[in-house]
Amino acid sequence: MVDFERLARPGVRELRAYDPGHDLVALRRRFAEAQLVELGSNENPYGASPEARQAIQRALDGIHIYPDPLGGDLKRALAAHHGVQPTNLLLGNGSHELLMQFAQVFAGPGDEVVASKFGFAVYALAAQAAGATLRPAPALPRENAMPRGHDLAGLRASIGPRTKLVYLANPNNPTGTWYAADEFAAFMAQVPGDVIVVVDEAYAEFTNAPDYASALPLVTLHPNLVVTRTFSKAYALAGLRVGFAVADEGLIAVMERVRESFNVNALGLVAAEAALADVDHLQASIAGNSAQREALADALRARGMKVAPSQTNFLLVEFGDHSSRIEARLVGRGVVLRPMGGYGLGECLRITVGTEVENQRLLAALDEVMK
Ligand SMILES: *Cc1c(COP(=O)(O)O)cnc(C)c1O
User: Catalytic activity, per the record (predicted)?
Assistant: First the structure.
């Protein structure tokens, strides 16, 4: 027998594959009639832009042809939208691919990667897969106004001489919390110029807090700053896998060397471009989410649960010692949430904000289960 564990590089040997949660395909079959309520993966329940669907339909005629390896049209549209140059943009097969590649390119054995204790799970995976060492920075305490959110002072203090890369998410998954724009500007001013800071803004479109701001305008001030975005969440194209990064053109040029030439598929390219242009559809999703986010948080708090403040399309909710039993019983009733044991938050469940109907079904099931 071949010992493939031994053949793998040390970083990979210690890796655990990303935990995708329940087998949703099987659950969908089981609850085909009752309709499964899927609130585990932060997808957008309002669906993709009709313009994006039409663009996909039109592109089907050319599906036997390789996609544009440069993604030129999408890059030009994104550049105009965000006020940057196409050379400041890197397209990814979802932002997940890019998050992995930053570590692959900029960190290796002997290097450290810093991320907040309750940061997105992919950052640890990226560091380990690259053979680098993850150094977890302390998160804000549970009692804080931003429970378990990023502690920028703690992150700064965790940066050492071996640190190559820092990953942050704003707002963060799975906590839903955010940090203020002025705090981040002060943080960037203190980070050494040769440490690359990746700010993952997967949920940026959903924010409405007055103290939140995207890090995008800071990219021109700090060549070591990278901002990632995705079409998977507010733009509702998760199934197509399109994300992008904005950074200094020198940094992008280095990243381009490891990018698989056709990493963004032809349907993804045209759909993302069309979705970007359909501002009304995006705004409707955002408005629906923010109204339901508030209503669902209120309904859960009225039931005595602790709900972390959120600027995303999900809520991190404390269910206490019985959380895994509650979660399992909800699945039995066709309602899927995301368990948080993998984050060391076993007492919590992460709940995607659904449509009003989905949220009502969740609350009704919860009331039955917790009786
Ligand atoms: C969903 C999510 C992403 C997006 O991943 P894609 O690969 O673009 O679908 C990135 N970061 C965080 C924190 C997320 O929650």
Answer: L-histidinol phosphate + 2-oxoglutarate = 3-(imidazol-4-yl)-2-oxopropyl phosphate + L-glutamate
- Round to whole Å and give the CA distance between 236 and 44: 5
* Six token digits for residue 174: 């799975």
Ligand 1, atom 10, lies closest to the CA of 202
Name all domains of the chain by residue range, CATH numbers in brackets.
9-47+280-370 (3.90.1150.10), 50-277 (3.40.640.10)
What 3-state DSSP class applies to 32? coil
Amino acid at 299: A
For 11-63, the pLDDT digits (tens) are: 888 888 777 778 999 999 999 888 999 999 999 999 999 999 999 999 999 99
Residue 230 beta carbon below 6 angstroms from any ligand 1 atom: yes
For a pocket test of ligand 1, which of 41, 99, 150, 173 has the largest count of ligand atoms closer than 8 A to its C-beta?
173
> Rounded CA gap, 28 and 357, in Å?
18
Ligand 1 pocket test: which of 232, 316, 352 has the largest number of ligand atoms within 8 Å of its C-beta? 232
Spatial contact of 244 and 78, defined as CB atoms under 8 Å apart: yes
pLDDT in tens, 342-367: 999 999 999 999 999 999 999 999 99
